[in-house]
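Look at one such:
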Amino acid sequence: MTRFLSGAALAAAAVAAILFLPLVALRLLACLVAALAAREYLGIVHTGRPVGMAPVLLIVIAVCWWMSDPTRTVVLPLLLVGLAWVAAEVLFRGRTVDQAAARFLAPWYIGMPLGMLAAVQGLAGPRATLLLVATIVVSDSGQYYTGRAFGRRPLAPAISPKKTIEGAVGGLLLATIFVILAGPWVFAGAGPLSLALLGATIVVLGICGDLFESRLKRTAGVKDSSALIPGHGGVLDRIDALLFAVPAYYLYLRA
């Protein structure tokens, strides 16, 4: 019951934010979510002892805010700043290349896609944002129920033993059909084939995002990224699939 209630409250809050918040407030909310998720990420990659967290969080927030502006089309300056930061951490802070690379990943893994998600709202309105979020939800639900009903062969047993190939295929088919049917509501000029490719791309990348976070947690020996959301783990646990799917959706929208 706790899981259901917290999930329902979270979903209602997300839909309300998408439908009613002005863009500047949505950009600020994206930065807050990015900071919370990045804090959890740093706790995972540093095995619960995140060190020098404040500079990383500030860069995550800065990247998220930069990318959430719908007029931004250039990310090269951010990449150059990030590379300079990695070099400084290795040369002057005494960190190993692995440590610096793990910290460098945070703005691009978390800050950039959440900024892009807010930019989607600015570019195409709430419908575009809702379509993406709904596609991820349909995919996750399809994977879960298809996997329970027909799942036999594990998809990635070393990373997430409960995921099955049958579940992944079920989620792929259901979410792709959903995008074909609902996509014209957002992309009026897109044909069925284009929407089918978009839906399939979102699902595949979402699965990769889910498995990526699962690998991080398994390596660190933790079950959830945090206990912030009762019954659901942490913020990163809730948005892992979205983080990988958003950039492709954003580029599709731009194109």
